[in-house]
Amino acid sequence: MPTNVLIVYYSAFNHVFELANAVADGAESVADVEVRLTRVAELEQARVGLSKSTHYIAAQERQAAVPIVTHDDLRWADAIAWGTPTRFGNMAAQMKLFMESLSPLWLKGELEGVPAGVFTSTSTIHGGQEITILSTMVPLLHLGMVFVGTPYGENPQILVTEGIGGSPYGPSTLAGPDNSREVRDVEKTTARNLGIRLAKMGGALKGLRRRGV
User: Fold this and answer.
1) So what's the pLDDT on residue 183?
2) Does the pTM of the predicted model rise above 0.90?
3) 3-state SS string for the chain
């Protein structure tokens, strides 16, 4: 049976969406892996508030074909990558609302032992890339998930002093104050590596869970 890798993301201006696709590319490069890309539903307040932003409108049109994530998607997954922009050092409200709906899975321990990684986007280099990933870990650990990062040994591209996204905690990118900055190839490399690592970890831990370890 294939290893199922689920990618769940929210993206207002496509930056997290770009990383999500890179994570998918990485996971798909591993043999006997099935990847499912899903997005978290938009909030009506955000849709109205951003309705005059050309960046936002174009991004939402581009993502329209991506299905909205369901609890059954999570049950299907052997590994999950979570993508969210940062909001003052925390995940976006859209992602938080979805995570707060997961009590039925938590009560039954349905995500326990499933590996999880997190990727994010900030406006600036000091906008909270690392703390957003770390704070997103908290509910994932409550759900019993096993956190997977992007260590230096597999990601020498993050050993730099220039302003790019990426850390040992997970992939990230910079959107710029006006959301016009493009995701760099080096940032996509870190995201692809997360996908590879999740796919491999998902396969390994799937076997352990089946044996009740």
Assistant:
1) 97
2) yes
3) CCEEEEEEECCCCCHHHHHHHHHHHHHHCCCCEEEEEEECCCCHHHHHHCCCCHHHHHHHHHHCCCCECCHHHHHHCCEEEEEEEEECCEECHHHHHHHCCCHHHHHHCCCCCCEEEEEEEECCCCCCHHHHHHHHHHHHHHCCCEECCCCHHHCHHHCCCCCCCCECCECEEECCCCCCCCCCHHHHHHHHHHHHHHHHHHHHHHHHHHCCC
